[in-house]
Structures are given as structure tokens and as C-alpha cells.
């Protein structure tokens, strides 16, 4: 994830039919002042806009995205992708309505953020959709809950659960990368950590957290199920489970943080161009954009 004003790149490969192949590289770059940082790839990259404008003019609402995983999991703050443009550029998918809520009344007036996002989505909807979409229930609970919470606290964003799920898929196989599993407490174990961003075919991002989050005191690495770089996480971290702390490895916290980052980067995500900007902020790679758009569209058609 990268900062809205930072750059990012990643390449990834997966099979959307089975959602079981994940092999991606991440390239975060230093975030610029006064804009979201990157921790698993997240938000705006002004340098990318001129190129994006040309691409969108030629192909329509094309998808330029940003957020994939390294073979060991890395994702935030990347550089522009050097990959050739794909033969086709998918349109940004329509954000999907959030599922029915259970514990809180819906409506923009409700801004209660003390309730854990895992308590917000209708459990029957989660069970049914998780099975149809092949998404772990605990991960889908977080994505749906984060979308519901965002609809209450930032109704103008228009973020769909399918966008969060698509990013989670491309970033970490929805928390299953490297045989990890999201437990009932929402924590991904073993910890999902990306490769060192040391410039070896990747962006060069010197350590920013003294190894506190990624265990590397020399270079930064993307961390957690939503693959945030330490700097981005430090700036945008959210407490999604209401325990008073923000844990980069906890899916509720990570999903709500990704939601905040995307909304900051793109604004009204129901607008295709804004959606593209937001995903590009997470990782400005055309290939990444296509993969996220494809997954988000797939999830949008789940019934």
C-alpha cells in the first residue's frame, strides 16, 4: 500500500477461477509530505496523474491500481510500474451495497466507531457470500464491516465491500498467503511480511520503523493481510475491533485502515476515475489495477 502522494509498483499473478495462486512483487516509494503514507499500499500519487490522464482518455475509465504481494508479502508505497500496458483495461467496478447490519442502525447520522466492525455485517449474508466467493468468513466479516462503518462515518466515499475484498485477495489471498490463517480474533498467523524493499528489482525504501512492524531494521517491508508499509500504517492506522489499539496484522484494523486510505485518496469512489486513483494510490501498476478490478467485478456478481 502506498501513500496517496507517494509512488508504488507491484506485479502479481493469480488465478481468479480458484483464487489460489498468488505470486506478486511490491515496490513502495517514500511518501510525500501532507499525504497518506504507505504500509501495505494505499493512496494518491500525483506523479501518476498525467500518465493516468492519457491512458483514461485513450481507453476510457481504465484501471490503474496499486497493491500486490511479494513472494514473502510486501505492499505499500511503490513506484510506477515498468510493465507494459495490458491489452485491455477493465472499467472500475461498481461498489457493492453493504450487507444488512445487525447491531447498529444504518444511516449517515450514525457515526459510532466504538463497535467492532466484525459485529456489523449480517451473519447469514457473510456465511452465504463467503462460501460463494471463496473468501474466508473472518476476512469477509472485516471487509463488509469496514464498508458499513465507512458508509456511516464517511458516506460520501461510496466504498464497496467488494473493493476491499479484491485488494485483500491480490495482496495476501485474503489472509492466506504463505499458509497464513486469520483466526477468530482476526489476527493473521503466521505474520504475513513482504520482501525487503532494497532496490533489487523493487523500490528502495530504507527502514522507517526501526523494525518494529516488519522486523527489518535496514529496509521496510509490507506487513499484514492488507500489506501496509510501516510509514503508511503509522499515519492511517484505525482501530477496527474496538480494543483500543491498531494492529497491522488484525484484519478488522487492517480493513478499516485500507478503507480510510482509499477514501482519502479517491474521494467519491462511485466515480470510476476516482476509484482508479484510489487503487493506484495503493499500488500504481496497471497490471495490479487490472487484477483488482477483475476481482472486484467478480465479487460484485456473487449472489
Describe what you observe in this structure.
- The protein has 303 residues and is mainly α.
- It is built from 8 helices and 4 strands, in the order E-E-H-H-H-H-E-E-H-H-H-H.
- Strands 1-2 form a two-stranded antiparallel sheet.
- A hairpin with a 5-residue loop joins strand 3 (181-182) and strand 4.
- The longest helix has 17 residues, at 137-153.
- The chain is globular.
- Residues 4-88 and 103-112 have low confidence and may be disordered.
Quick overview of this protein structure:
This protein is mostly helical and 303 residues long. 33% of the residues lie in helices and 5% in strands. It contains 8 helices and 4 strands, in the order ββααααββαααα.
Key phrases:
303 residues; mainly alpha; two-stranded antiparallel ribbon; globular
Topology at a glance:
Layout: E1 8-13, E2 23-28, H1 49-59, H2 123-133, H3 137-153, H4 161-172, E3 181-182, E4 188-189, H5 230-236, H6 251-266, H7 272-282, H8 286-300
Antiparallel strand pairs: 1-2, 3-4
Q: State mean pLDDT (0 to 100 scale).
A: 73
As laid out across the biggest beta sheet, the strand order is 1-2
Give start-end ranges of low-pLDDT stretches. Answer: 4-88, 103-112
What is the oligomeric state here?
single chain
Amino acid at each position: 500500500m502506498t501513500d496517496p502522494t507517494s509512488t508504488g509498483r507491484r506485479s502479481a499473478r493469480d488465478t481468479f477461477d480458484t483464487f489460489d495462486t498468488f505470486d506478486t512483487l511490491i515496490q513502495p516509494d517514500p511518501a510525500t509530505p501532507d499525504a497518506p503514507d504507505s504500509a501495505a499500499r494505499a493512496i494518491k500519487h500525483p506523479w501518476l496523474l498525467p500518465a493516468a490522464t492519457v491512458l483514461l482518455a485513450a481507453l476510457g475509465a481504465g484501471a490503474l491500481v496499486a497493491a500486490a504481494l511479494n513472494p514473502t508479502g510486501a505492499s505499500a508505497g511503490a513506484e510506477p510500474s515498468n510493465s507494459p500496458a495490458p491489452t485491455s483495461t477493465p472499467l472500475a467496478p461498481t461498489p457493492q451495497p453493504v450487507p444488512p447490519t445487525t447491531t447498529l442502525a444504518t444511516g449517515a447520522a450514525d457515526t459510532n466507531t466504538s463497535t467492532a466492525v466484525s459485529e456489523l455485517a449480517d451473519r447469514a449474508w457473510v456465511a452465504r457470500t463467503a462460501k460463494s466467493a471463496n473468501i474466508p468468513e473472518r476476512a469477509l466479516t472485516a471487509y463488509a464491516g469496514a464498508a458499513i462503518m465507512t458508509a456511516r462515518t464517511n458516506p460520501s466515499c461510496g466504498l464497496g465491500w467488494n473493493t476491499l475484498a479484491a485488494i485483500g485477495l491480490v495482496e495476501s489471498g485474503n489472509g492466506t498467503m504463505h499458509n497464513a490463517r486469520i483466526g477468530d480474533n482476526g489476527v493473521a498467523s503466521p505474520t504475513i511480511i513482504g520482501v525487503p524493499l532494497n532496490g533489487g528489482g523493487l523500490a528502495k525504501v530504507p527502514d522507517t520503523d526501526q523494525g518494529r512492524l516488519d522486523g527489518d531494521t535496514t529496509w521496510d517491508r509490507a506487513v499484514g493481510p492488507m500489506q501496509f508499509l510501516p510509514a503508511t500504517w503509522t499515519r492511517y492506522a484505525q482501530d477496527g475491533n474496538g480494543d483500543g489499539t491498531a494492529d497491522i496484522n488484525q484484519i478488522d484494523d487492517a480493513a478499516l485502515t485500507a478503507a480510510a486510505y482509499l477514501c482519502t485518496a479517491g474521494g467519491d469512489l462511485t466515480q470510476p476515475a476516482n476509484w482508479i486513483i484510489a487503487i493506484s494510490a495503493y499500488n500504481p501498476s496497471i497490471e495490479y489495477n487490472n487484477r483488482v478490478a477483475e476481482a472486484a467485478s467478480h465479487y460484485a456478481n456473487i449472489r
